Amino acid sequence: MSDHFPIFTCVGNTINSVNDSPLSFKYRKFGEPVYNQLRGMLAEVNWDFIETLDINDACKKFISVINEYVDLVAPAKTVTIPPHKIKEPWYTRGLLKSRNTLDKL
Fold first, then answer.
1. How far apart are CA 83 and CA 21, in angstroms?
2. N or C: lower Cβ tally within 10 Å for the chain?
3. Number of independent structural domains in the chain
4. How many CA atoms are closer than 13 Å to the CA of 51, on its beta-carbon side?
């Protein structure tokens, strides 16, 4: 386990110009307590099975164990953003404020 925080990259995601359906995605809430709990759980695993399996099966089993414990300590949560809240990336908070001020005039 590393002390580095994960880095995420989203590739190929586009927002439709017609916002007729909600945007849903899953995320996990990580923090130092979650990392410490995960480290403790993984330290208790008997990893001897890695030496007895061939490399492909050992890798699959290793990933399966990691995913199982990550699901326990940081379950995936789904966030849904309604269509009326989805905006173009260039539509900044400042532009929104200016539009609202103009609408009040």
1. 6
2. C
3. 1
4. 3
Mean pLDDT value across the chain: 83
Two structure tokens written together for 60: 């699959």
What's the gap between Cα 40 and its chain centre? 22
- DSSP one-letter code for 3: S
- Spatial neighbors of 18 by CB under 8 A, at least 6 apart, are none
Residue that wins the pLDDT comparison between 22 and 58: 58
| pLDDT tens digit sequence for 66-90 | 999 999 999 999 988 887 777 777 7
CB count within 10 Å of CB 4 equals 6
In a domain, residue 67? The reply is yes
Nearest by Cα to 13 from 89, 65, 76: 89
8 Å CB contact between 38 and 73: yes
Q: Which structural domain, as residue segments, surrounds residue 95?
A: 23-104
